[in-house]
Write a structure and sequence with these properties.
The protein starts with a helix and ends in a 10-residue tail after the last helix. The chain has a seven-stranded mixed sheet, sandwiched between helices. Strands 11-12-15-14 form a four-stranded antiparallel sheet. By secondary structure, it is α/β, with parallel strands linked by helices. Helix 7 (174-184) links the parallel strand 7 and strand 8. The protein is 46% helix and 13% strand. It has helices at 2-17, 31-37, 59-76, 88-99, 125-129, 146-156, 174-184, 196-200, 235-249, 255-267, 271-293, 312-316, 320-329, 357-361, 366-381, 386-402; strands at 20-21, 48-49, 52-53, 80-82, 105-109, 131-135, 160-163, 187-191, 213-217, 228-232, 297-298, 307-311, 332-333, 335-337, 351-355. Bound molecules: D-serine (DSN). D-serine binds at residues 25, 88, 116, 166.
């Protein structure tokens, strides 16, 4: 039975090696991150915080957690960090519970317009526990209109304003958000989950300079293990956040994951990582321009970060679900995604979201992404032509062969 599990893991490894991974929230971690996350630290209970634990034998996990905090505060130039959240959703829940009372008003971007489930969707705890109101993107440009956000904030007087998104391809002006939050007396929270790696490399305004509190996941552009993180410069806020994370909503921290986070933070301080993030952004522009040249409609008409939102309905009269499935057939993985003013549902959608973080880790360069753009365009425009799809599959295999990954990792 145990072998069965390792056989499945090996099959998943091969799937990852043999497909072009364009899900904007995924990446390939380093073998050192894998090693730390797969370590004996998983055996240790360490409820509490360094030097204040509810269990004995925490001397070394204290060292690990202190190192993770030291590295991440240096990386983002911020005073305090809580590295224990098991996920981005948990990190967001902790911040809401630390700063708000049930029913308090929050202003955020809705899921449909590019926000996240935990930014107030009715199906999430967030939309149930708090009164979320949403700013939208401009109809023409699909970009945030800061004057409109300001007007709404002044009218509604929320207790907290949330900036950050899961499917927004443009820079976000956190300084402007801070000004708006200050004008209406709200806290400013930034969820930088998607762009954390780009921020770490200094290629996007750093929200830690402007927000009262910042949350993120560690596994997207930041390229660490799956997990969450909370950052702030405010001593009162970190005290409340710490109490909320433990014992408020979590029990024992996952010390093996915290060790892997520390490895990722250390890696993110290297020159190689900065170069990598520059390539992530350049590659996204190339992929975007190639699709535009092939006649595809891109939401916001471009990208400033790692992701591209494609309106496949207007481009090739397919739903996002259909496009995702057809690309899957030729070895390209992406996800269907709502676009602003989408008339469909999250399970169907009119768009697909593409990201360059994972394949840039594998070494894909601008030429490779040009080829990927052409393959995607040809595939979606000829989705019922088996001969063309077979040919595209070979083209996918050819690029992948040039950029192997996890060759020394085996579960057999
Ligand atoms: N599911 C993640 C994403 O794909 O953006 C966010 O949690």
């Amino acid at each position: 039975m145990v072998e069965e599990i390792f056989e499945i893991i090996e099959k998943e490894k091969k799937r990852q090696q043999n497909t072009i991974e364009l899900i904007a929230s995924e990446n390939f971690v380093s073998e050192n991150v894998l090693k730390a996350q797969g370590s004996i630290l998983t055996n240790k209970y360490a409820e509490g915080y360094p030097a204040k634990r509810y269990y004995g034998g925490c001397v070394h996990v204290d060292e690990i957690e202190n190192k993770a905090i030291e590295y991440v505060t240096k990386l983002f130039g911020v005073r305090y960090a809580n590295v224990q959240p098991h996920s981005g959703s948990g990190a967001n829940m902790a911040v809401y519970r630390a700063l708000l009372n049930p029913g308090d008003k929050v202003l955020s971007m809705s899921l449909d317009e590019g926000g996240h489930l935990t930014h107030g969707h009715q199906m999430s705890f967030s939309g149930n526990d708090y009164k979320f109101i949403h700013y939208t993107v401009e109809k023409e440009t699909c970009q945030i209109n800061y004057d409109e956000v300001r007007k709404l904030a002044m009218k509604e007087k929320p207790k907290l304003i949330l900036a950050g998104a899961s499917a927004y391809s443009r820079k976000i002006d956190f300084a402007e958000f801070r000004d708006i939050a200050r004008s209406c007396g709200a806290y400013l929270m930034v969820d930088m989950a998607h762009i954390a790696g780009i921020v770490a490399a200094g290629l996007h305004q750093n929200p830690c300079k402007y927000a009262d509190v910042v949350t993120t996941t560690t596994h997207k552009t930041l390229r660490g293990p799956r997990g969450g993180l909370i950052l702030t410069n405010n001593e009162q806020i970190i005290k409340k956040v710490n109490k909320t994370v433990f014992p408020g909503i979590q029990g024992g921290p996952l010390m093996h994951v915290i060790a892997a986070k520390a490895v990722c933070f250390a890696e993110a301080m290297t020159d190689e990582f900065i170069e990598y993030q520059k390539n992530v952004v350049k590659n996204a522009k190339v992929l975007c321009d190639t699709l535009k040249m092939e006649g595809f409609k891109i939401i916001t008409n471009g990208t400033d970060n790692h992701l591209i939102l494609v309106d496949v309905k207007k481009s090739v009269n397919l739903t996002g679900k259909e496009a995702e499935e057809i690309l899957d057939e030729i070895g390209i993985t992406c996800n269907k995604n709502m676009i602003p003013n989408d008339p469909t549902t999250p399970f169907i959608t009119s768009g697909i979201r593409l990201g360059t973080a994972a394949m840039t880790t594998r070494g894909f360069d601008q030429n490779d992404f040009r080829e990927v753009g052409k393959i995607i365009a040809t595939c979606l425009s000829n989705n019922d032509n088996k001969k063309i799809l077979d040919d595209l599959k070979l083209r996918v295999e050819k690029i992948l062969e040039k950029h192997p990954i996890y060759e020394g990792v085996s579960y057999e």
